[in-house]
Amino acid sequence: FLSLLFFSVGAFAEQMPAHDEIDQIIQKMNFEEKVGQLLFVGFGGTEMDDTLASFFKQKKPGGAAFFSRNIKKLPQTLKLIRDVQALAPAGIPLFVSVDQEGANVVRLQKYATVIPSNMAIGATRSEQLAFEAGKALGKDLHLMGFNMNLAPVLDVASNPQNPVIGIRAFSGNADLVAQMGSAYVAGLQSEGVSAVAKHFPGHGDTRTDSHFETPILNHDRARLNKVELKPFKTVADNGIDAMMTAHIVLPQIAEKSDLPATISKNLLTGIVRKEWGYEGLVVTDGLEMHGIVSRYGSGEAAVRAIEAGADMVLILWTVEKKNEVHNALRKAVREKRISEQRLHESLRRILLVKKRRGILKQKLFPVSQTLSKLKKGKHRLVVQQIAQKALTMVENPEQVMPLSKTKKILVASTEPTFMNTIAKSVPGTKIVRLRLGASAKRKNTLAKQIVASAANAEILVLGLLNADYVHLAKEVRNAYPGKPIIVVSFGSPFLKAFLPKDIGYVCAYGFRRASEVAAAEVLLGTRQAEGRLPIVLD
Questions:
Q1: What is the DSSP string of 89-118?
Q2: Which of 121, 220, 478, 514 has the most neighbouring CB atoms within 10 Å?
Q3: Is the dihedral of CA 246, 250, 254, 260 positive or negative?
Q4: Which residues in the chain show pLDDT less than 50?
């Protein structure tokens, strides 16, 4: 199956037009347009105004990233995409991207495919579902006018203490990440939407978040080849359009022991370009993240990234930082710190990807016509299929599942659809809603309420998204040592480490409606748990 997918994505050598064609475009570009193509910018607001229009006309960026702050309603979003593209230099439309990973990283809620999570796909072990998930999302994004998705995450979830990756990863197994990620990329790009693998060279085995500090990954090359780098190498070999760097330090690989990957020539040029022969795009992660800006400043980091082998720099938030980066790049090009040859290398890569995905000739449907097409959503059935096939029965002591309809059941959860589905099927079920982000006082009150209510229940079911309420399982176990407890994790499967040993444990890997319903069906016995753990639990 994968060989067919890879053929459909195509190798770069087979799809790249002659450089002469791209060089003709570059020769017609002026200085500002050339520098502008290196900029991938975020911006504020939900509609085009004079200030925003002036910004795009002056900076001439090669890409624009949409976030939740830009997305209010679908018609508004579609219009804003079209207004942004109308300001692109003649003949060179922008990359217009969005972070639509699924799970907890979702910008578009309506009329867009929202997969339960990458880890849910990993639990299905289905390349076909991974491909169809990417294709379904690509169809939606392309209709809207997005031509790039800042996904998939190809980090390997090998560290249970990682604070930022979790179910965003396909698996803790590098081979499975490579397999599922490649199929997803093939599906997404088959619909004319560029995929961006992140966070190169691999953020999975870190204990810190690069938004706030610089993570260190002190592995040697043999380990990196086997784990962290493997998924990125696989998708690079099979024609992914772009990869995003992470601001993490690899002391055994980088030129200096404290040099972030984003500005390491050993990594970006030495490994990615020379060893792998990758000629797609390298895009930096945000250059306002503390993990890099605290040490170099955004402008200097941007110049160093291009020198190291990156093609586009991501600057998403403040106007001051965008001006700093723009001015630094302009100065570096004028003073030959970034040579014309080096600049043109990145321009060719940018324009080749834009040509490959049809962006240079992209024609956007009118808003009304697009809305009509988006309402036809049969392709989004893949979301339900993934949610159902991902459900994993990890532990079922004393065969407490499926739930008996003659038992008195207490269900406490952060997920209301999950609770209500069980309550409708089992008469007399009592439910307690757990609020995310509740105060310590409120949590203590809920704990006392649940321990008291559990006295009259024969089974306690807890549906948890994170570790906020894991103490409930321990308190009920302490109060009633022999009472059966079932925990359903709607987030990370690593939650199990915080729970008592002798409980039922089910993983859903997603917290949206399809996952909630599928989890309830597994507990009720109306659906079999077909998923397999994509990570290793102690």
A1: PTT-PPEEEE---BTTB-S--SSS---S-H
A2: 121
A3: positive
A4: 3-4, 6-17
pTM surpassing 0.70?
yes
Are the C-beta atoms of residues 92 and 37 closer than 8 Å to each other? yes
164 to 293, 433, 438, 465: CA distances (angstroms): 19, 26, 21, 15
**3-state DSSP assignment of residue 416:** helix
Nearest residue to 242 via CA among 345, 350, 318: 350
Amino acid 318: pLDDT: 87
pLDDT value at residue 317:
85
State phi, psi for 412 to the nearest 5 degrees.
Answer: -125, 130
Q: Decide: helix, strand or coil at residue 485.
A: strand
- pLDDT for the residue numbered 6: 47
| pLDDT for position 214 | 75
Count of alpha carbons within 13 angstroms of residue 112, beta-carbon side: 24
- pLDDT score recorded for residue 96: 98
Look at strands 392-395 and 504-507 and give their pairing.
Answer: antiparallel
Which pLDDT value is given to residue 323?
94
Q: Which helix (H) or strand (E) holds 459?
A: strand 459-464
Nearest Cα neighbor of 185 from 230, 237, 225, 228 is: 237
- The residue whose two tokens read 């980090």 is 155
Between CA 390 and CA 529 the distance in angstroms is 8
CA distance 102 to 96: 18
Distance, CA of 120 to chain centre: 13
* Stretch (H or E) spanning 131: helix 127-144
User: CA gyration radius for the chain?
Assistant: 24
What is the dihedral angle through the alpha carbons of 486, 492, 493, 494, rounded to the nearest 10 degrees? -110
Q: Enter the tokens of residue 31.
A: 């200085």
Provide the residue type at 123 as one letter: A
Q: Which residues of 295-307 are buried (b: 16+ CB within 10 A; e: fewer)?
A: ebbbbbbbbbbbb
State residue 5's pLDDT score: 52
d(C-alpha 466, C-alpha 492), whole Å: 7
